[in-house]
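Predict structure. Chain length: 546.
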Amino acid sequence: MRLVFLALVLLVLPRFAECYEVSTHEDLVRTASRRSVGDQTLMEDLGLKDGFRTTIRGKVLEEWLVDGGTNEDNFPRFLNHFHNPLASNWSEAGLGGSVGQSAVLWAQNPSQSAPSWSWRDVRQAYLDALTKPMIGDRDKGFATTFEGLGRQMHLVQDAASPGHARNDPHILFNYESAIDGLRLREASTFASWRDGAPDTPGAPDPGWQSLDGNPLAPIAIARLVDADRYTGANPGVTAGALIGLSEYTNANFFSEDRIFTENDANPQSRFPFPKRSSVVEQDVNVQVGGATVKRRYLVKAADGATGYRLATVGFLREYHRRFGLDLGRFLETPSLDEAVYRDYAERLVPRAVTYSTALLDYFFRGRLFVSGDDVSMAIRNSSDEPMSGTFTLYYDDAGDTRRPVPGASWTGALAPGGRLTDLRVIAPTSPAPKEAGKYMLVFRGALGTESDAVIGKQVAIESVLSVRLLKRKDGTPIRDTSIQAIDRTTGEPVTVATTDQDGRAKLSWRPGRTVLFIPSVNVFPMYWAGGASFVMICGCGCGCGY
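Prediction complete.
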């Protein structure tokens, strides 16, 4: 049976492969990217001042996202873009039960047909973008990360297409092709759907991130597609904000070959809702060829989302009634016309955008904050979830080679707001950094329920020198004395400090480039190339009074 189905797919491949149409996905991905907090994360945390508009390998990052969102529909990948939320097991939730892998499994399957674009692979690409030694490899990592995220967004968006949620290959004209046509003909109408809010305020509820994971696809992103809350007997739950996108779509909309199939003998096409008792009949004025005509529709009135045209009343209905025909001999079948598709799109397109935005935000949700200096630095978990893993500091040398800072790698577990403190960093000098004090802090480890997350944070860590002045004669602290750290390259002061009651002062320090100058003691500046502390005991007999 599977071979027969695949043969049919190959026969009609040009039409099948246009499944949302590629250009529609492009529009949806672009819109989601412009709503995402990821853009701000790149600017604030990674130092990419143009965010998603940063050019990498000849394209801005947003275009790499769009490439992923369109390329994911290439054959045979699109066979793995279906998910039936009512399947007894996710391993049987793909197209035809076994023709393709369920979209939620495909998204997390590192053994996808090469190249693999699984979530784990995208995370690895992001780690490469932050840590690879050569800048070309880091750029490749960024491009791969964003193309992979675009592909992941595509899988979420497909769950807002009835055919993808109701195991319907929708080979001929269908909801997706209808919406793409409307997008081209009525750009402002499509934009109003795309930029609108879901019919359920707050969907998706952020609680999706905390739902129990499914062992077949344990990363929380699976819950954007299937929260395992709709069982087929409780359609009302799909009207809430905490629901998977495929569950909402499956329970509330028809696809072309899955209309009122609650009693279908084939379990692959049997869906309990919407059913006959979910609708009421209503006459609606529609425009046909420039004329206004009255057409009768089945309007969704119960069992989940309500208030829209679900299907037309079958064309033979009135003949059945007027002439008392045998319903068994003359089957009247509801259909989906453009007015129905418009009502669908008004509800499904905003969800496709908001749910795929949520996926992108999830990827960039981890936040770090660094305070202190290289003598006593602290890392704070600024995320809303606990993290446990390794924190490693990197720097770029003059040739843009990224290198780990020797000795600057720490492991720890941090609750939200928790800190690792009293961390010591020895500023690298061989090779010297391209920009002193500028580092990339990279975390890899568990973040919330995600076991292999990656977070980057560009930080400036000031190097400091702790100075103490004492009298040689009796060790009395030398108080209220000005000390300067001077950049020996430019001659400009880096810092000026005054000793405290214990004779101590802390100065900013540029290792290998800074000299000390104590105006009341020195005739010439002193170069100090030692550690981060310095004690001067004066007894020079120079008339300084010490």
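Summary: The longest helix spans residues 338-363.
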